[in-house]
Amino acid sequence: MKRYLVLVIVLSTICTDLFAAEAGMPQLDPKYWASQAFWLVLVFSVLYISIANFYLPKIKKNLDNRENKIKEDLDEANNLKILSEKKLKEYEIILQNSKKEVTKILLESKKKLDSDIQNKKNTIEKEIENELSKAQKEILELKKNSINSINIISQEIASNIIEKISGDKLNESSIKAAVEDISKKNVGKYL
Amino acid sequence: MANNPMQQFSVHKIGPEIKIAGIDLSFTNASLFMVVSAALIGIFLFLGTKEKKIIPDKIQLVAEMFYSFVAKMISDTAGSKAKPYFPFIFSLFMFVLLCNMVGMIPYTFTVTSHIIVTLIMALFIFIAVTIIGFLKHGFKYLSIFVPSGVPTVLLPLITIIEIISYLSRPVSLSVRLFANMMAGHTMLKVFGGFVVSLGILGGWLPLSFSVALTGLEILVAFLQAYVFAILTCIYLNDALNLHH
User: Fold this and answer.
1) A22, B10, B38, B154: most buried by Cβ count inside 10 Å?
2) Is residue B80 within 8 Å of residue B240, measured between CB atoms?
3) CA–CA distance, B132 with A87 (Å, rounded to integer)
4) What is the pLDDT averaged over residues A159-173?
5) Global ipTM
6) Are B5 and A5 within 8 A, CB to CB?
């Protein structure tokens, strides 16, 4: 700024003839000072009053509105975010619960199935056992019966054979005793 | 006449002579450009606040930028206590800026290039700040002249210097703006005169200077308005928040 003043002074000394017409600065002529002061105060007062009472509140209100709107939007976005997180958590809990339930159901049905199979197996095995014991009894019965019938058949055969060879009829009871003795001796050999 | 670089600062009467109590209060070209500047501010702010949009249009954005610019300037320099003075600082900044800027248009009159105008603004600020200081702090406001942490031997000297510097505030504030405006416009006029006098052959150099100076002067016009406003904020800060 000092540079300016120096330049002006230098230039004004160069062009002194330009200043000859109106020497000095019009700023220092007090003729219109009062007028300038009056109009400055008037114009500035009007400007100040209109700015302070009319324009600035409007700008401020608008800026505040915008700030509030942005804040509200941000708050809403935040709320929505929290809500969505809550929902996500709920969903995850539901998913977990259902998963637990599924495994439970799976386990239960498996257990049931297992016990069912076991029961069926048991009953079938029992039946088989019954049948088996029955069959064994029958066989035993048959064995006993067969020994008796064999004894009888052997007696008859022996008496027949003796009759045919010797022509005599032997005592039936002695034959019977002999056959029984032989069968008793040999029963282990055949049966 | 036309070649005189100071002729652009001369004040002349427009319309009838107005005399109140023997004082000449006629409407002059200076008054006209005050009204023009104020009207431009009014129109600009009117357009800027006409529609209250959430997403601002260009002129609304500029108006809001000025608002937040001045608001930030005040809160940075004078703190939150200076909020009630925001409309005044805003009006002051806009008025000085527009007067400077309107003065950059050729054939216009630069209101702020007159010492009386800047002196009245500076004196008003000085007196107002002093009154605010005494109202807020009473006689303790005088402690502004006694900086803390100064050796007792130097204290009288420092106090005298502080008083002088305080009293020279309106002078420095007004002369800074006035001298900058006057010097810049004189320079523009002088270089413009050189362009004419050197003619088609030699006029190109001063012409290029003139173009560069115009850019510089627009910068200075903004800068001086900013400096004027920020110094007001600093003085206000001294009065509101005693002790530095």
Assistant:
1) B38
2) no
3) 59
4) 79
5) 0.87
6) no
User: CB-based contact (8 Å) between A18 and chain B?
Assistant: yes
As a whole number, mean pLDDT of residues A28-42 equals 83
**CA distances (Å), A41 to each of B20, B103, B114, B124, B136, in order?**
15, 19, 15, 10, 26
CA distance B190 to chain A (A): 8
pLDDT tens by residue, B93-134 = 999 999 999 888 888 888 888 888 899 999 999 999 999 988
Mean pLDDT of chain A: 83
For testing contact with chain A, the best of B13, B33, B49, B69 (most A CBs within 10 A): B49
What one-character DSSP code corresponds to residue A52? Answer: I
Sort out which chain B residues have CB atoms less than 8 A from A65's CB and list them: 52, 54
Q: What is the mean pLDDT of chain B?
A: 85
- Residue B25: its chain A contacts at CB < 8 A? 34-35, 38-39
Q: Which residues of B touch A31 (CB under 8 A)?
A: 11, 24
Which of A21-30, A48-57, B189-198 has the highest mean predicted lDDT (pLDDT)?
Answer: A48-57
Query: Could you say which of B24, B67, B115 has the minimum Cβ distance to residue A32?
Result: B24
CB count in 10 Å sphere of residue B101:
18
Longest distance between any two alpha carbons in chain B, whole Å: 68
> Tell me: the pLDDT tens digits for B162-198?
899 899 999 999 999 988 988 888 888 888 888 888 8
pLDDT band at A20 (very low <50, low <70, confident <90, very high): very low
By Cβ distance, the residue of B31, B41, B54 closest to A35 is B31
Helix (H, G, I), strand (E, B) or coil at B13: strand
Which ranges of chain A does DSSP label H, i.e. alpha helix?
A: 2-14, 16-19, 33-50, 56-166, 172-190
A154, A179 Cβ separation under 8 angstroms: yes
- Give the domain ranges of chain A: 31-190
Rounded to a whole number, what is the distance in Å from the CA of B4 to chain A's nearest CA? 5
The gap between the terminal CA atoms of chain B, to the nearest Å, is 51
